[in-house]
Amino acid sequence: MNLNFQLDDLRVFCLAARKGSFAATALELGASPAFISKRIAILEKSLGVTLFHRSARRVTITDDGERVYASAQQIFDSVESMGDAVAGDRLDPRGALRVTTSFRLGRKHIAPALSLLAQRYPELDITLDVVDRRVDLVAENVDLDIQIGEVQEPHLVAHRIAATRRLLYAAPSYLERRGVPATPAELCRHDCLVLRERRQPFGVWKLDGPHGAEKVKVTARMSSNHSEILRAWAIDGNGILLPATWDVHDEALAGRLVPVLPAYSQNADIWAASTVRLAASAKVRVCVRFLQEQLAQGPFALKQA
Fold first, then answer.
1. Which fold does the domain 165-267 belong to in CATH?
2. Global confidence as pTM
3. Which residues 6+ apart lie within 8 Å of 141 measured at CB?
4. Which parts of the chain have pLDDT scores under 50?
């Protein structure tokens, strides 16, 4: 194995891996397919592996190619971090920035904030994915995962974006029909609307109240992984909901949902998880600080009920 290859060849390989075509890669780079094939062949010879299975119409990456691709992303991240660390705040952020978050938070707050961020820093190429599962930042090449609740993974760096809480709410029609619970223990006798979150145990509500922390196992007659669905069900009178206060601000203001057991709440701070510290990456640093500002004030701020 001869590792004395050009970094540009590695970039060509990564682009070809994403496109699955030497012709499409050549078109994007303004080169010929023969040139792309030659650079890939040189890289394969240097590494001593076959990176692609070749056919008449397309190319598909091999298992060795997958491993090289994953390592290449780490190399490019390290090169970019080195440049950012040397330049510090003197450089504007640039390059690819991939962000993940949950559906509701992403649609209402993160997406419009990132739109403003893109306008301020035109050298950033931003991708936002909304998902309802745990994200492996390293394996999936994610720069920032914006989540509700503390970052659990010890190998990740946590940045608090905003402080929020969850409160219990229900429609007046439900409370008139089923009564108002007097204690958290009574919630087990009520219909509860449970959000299947990517980082929370299903059907267990942990509440902080006058007597400290309490854990309640609730009956989930209706559940969903989408908070908008649960909110609509709650407004229809189907049960008691435990949403973040910003998520039901308008409904609470209009009286469509009213607080239940208001002395009890759950921490729902919003955090950003990254694989690097802010000092090591200009794009991560700028994005975290921008989201902290935008979610605290302005048109896309979190309005607490």
1. D-Maltodextrin-Binding Protein; domain 2 (3.40.190)
2. 0.66
3. 73, 98
4. none
